[in-house]
Amino acid sequence: MEPLNVILDSLRDMGESFLGHLPQIVFGSLLLILTWGVGRVAEMILNRVLPRFQLRTSLQELFQQLAYIVIWIVGILASAIVMFPTLTPGKLLTAIGLGSIAIGFAFKDIFENFIAGMLILLREPFQLKDCIECQEIEGFVEEITIRDTHIRQTDGQRVVVPNAKLFKNPVTVRTDLDKRRVTIMCGVAYGEDVDKARSVITDAVQGLDTVENGKEVQIFAQAFGASSIDFEVTWWTGSKPVEVRQSRDKVVAAVKKALDKAGIEIPFPYRTLTFKEPLKTVMEHTDQQQEQVESPQGT
């Protein structure tokens, strides 16, 4: 009977201990329920207040998530201290610190993208529908989340880019302004009049509907090329990739047509070959063969 008595005594002690801690457990459970209620109320308040600041949707969701996480962390810590009186705030902070270090090493990339996403959402270096380029990835921003950014490339493919990559590398925002400057090179023959060629090119570019009228068209003779005087042709057009391609197409066609109409030559490279020994022409080679044929007959 002694083993049975020992078991009964242990169960009795556990029951008494449970009953003794029952008020703390109930109060701690009530704190958790209160934490849930506070989180819901905070979510409702933020849903009404944040839209007034005209923040992007993803940034509003970020603030809501951060507020919800902070409320639950405080509520769980308070409940743990109430349920377990021997667990002091100092011990809790120590355990959280050690745990955060281990978690940080295990999920380094995830936290790196998370922090980068927060900074991107707060600083707003680019916005939705912007055309950006980062390390050979170019396209329009469709969605910005805490972890990654979704980019739709001009060929229709969707690329999910980690936020850390966009935060640590240079990003070109092509649609930051409504207009963008475009430059092409155009060459004319050395025998042509430079001032006349410049005037013809300027008139051809200025008359196009894809060229911004409020910005000056700039034509500069830039260099002496291999077979031509090279002109730098610069104008302003829309900033979207398709607008740039359309405008460049029209400018090239208009300049070519205008130069042809004015009789100005657009040269192509000429190549001169020099041989160590003189080459014989076809006629010379034929004459030698005839001489060789006639020589035996004369003897």
Structure description:
- By secondary structure, this protein is α+β, with helices and mostly antiparallel strands.
- The chain folds into three domains: 2-106, no CATH class; 126-173, SH3 type barrels (Roll); 177-299, Alpha-Beta Plaits.
- It is built from eight helices and eight strands; from the N terminus they run H-H-H-H-E-E-E-E-H-E-E-H-E-E-H-H.
- The chain has helices spanning 2-49, 57-83, 89-106, 108-123, 163-168, 194-206, 241-261, 282-298, and strands at 131-134, 137-144, 148-153, 158-162, 172-173, 179-188, 218-224, 229-238.
- A five-stranded antiparallel β-sheet has the order 4-3-2-1-5. The chain has a three-stranded antiparallel β-sheet with strand order 6-8-7.
- Helix 1 packs antiparallel against helix 2 and helix 6 crosses helix 7.
- The longest helix is centred in the N-terminal third of the chain and has 48 residues, at 2-49.
- It starts with a helix and ends with a helix.
- The mean pLDDT is 82.
When the domains are counted, the total is: 3
What's the overall geometry? elongated
CATH class of the largest domain: Alpha Beta
Low-confidence stretches: none
**Distance between the amino and carboxyl termini:** 147 Å
CATH fold topology of the largest domain: Alpha-Beta Plaits
Overall residue-averaged pLDDT value: 82
Architecture of the largest domain, according to CATH? 2-Layer Sandwich
Task: Going across the biggest sheet, name each strand in turn.
Answer: 4-3-2-1-5
